[in-house]
Amino acid sequence: MLLKDRVVIITGAGRGIGKAAALKFAAEGASVAVVSRTLSQLEEVAEAITSQGGKAAPVQADVSIESQVQEMVRRVLQAFGRIDVMVNNAALPGPEKPLVELEMSEWDIPLGINLRGSVMCSKYVLPHMFEQGSGNIINVSSTAGRRGMAGRTHYSSSKFGVIGFTQALAMEVGPRNVRVNCIVPGAINTELLVAYHQRIAGERGVSYEQVKGEAAAAAPLNKVVEPSEVADLMVYLASDLSVGIHGQSLDINAGSWMS
Q1: 71: Cβ contacts below 8 Å, ≥ 6 apart
Q2: pLDDT for residue 254
Q3: Which residues are catalytically annotated?
Q4: For domain 7-187+226-252, which architecture applies?
Q5: Could you tell me the sign of the dihedral formed by the alpha carbons of 236, 239, 241, 245, in that order?
Q6: Residues of the chain with pLDDT under 70
């Protein structure tokens, strides 16, 4: 097992990429703290892990609220005694609007979860990683953090920020034996993408299968990446197989964006 006896926190673990990651990490021997705002989803994921003989703890928290992040860290330490890997996966896109129509309170939503949340979770796990002499932080950006998206200025800004934060933090904590990297997913076959394709299909008056097929055909590999494939990359970055990788942002998008 690649992650035997390691303790991992995964935010946004109630569904999509986070859920897939929680299951993969547990299968590789990690004890997993699954974190989200929706407790019912977390309990379902934790039950799926423990029913297979794994170790999991559901922790309800909003990562944009500092006191809740601090409490999250306290509860994970209480449950498992250490923190080896922090996966900053929680994200919200915010409403799709031109900037001139966007309320500043709407601007703050993705910045608070996507960027501030990643910063605060890292800030509060780092002292414990320093104390134990090792650690690993995996941030999650987006192709929207590689190229701007019209109508998503807030989301793109937050995801560009995650990449910059990754590089700066890697410079800062590498000498303390804490690795920091970033995963940059493109279109991933999550519930959110399915809903988006269904909406586009309805607007165009075509079938969902046609829209999904067009999305797959737009990538050189002629596919849409599955959440489990992103989870595999997370496990790789968390494991000793990637000990020389630090401060990097790795794209996973079936070739639709090549950096």
Answers
A1: 61
A2: 93
A3: 155
A4: 3-Layer(aba) Sandwich (3.40)
A5: positive
A6: none
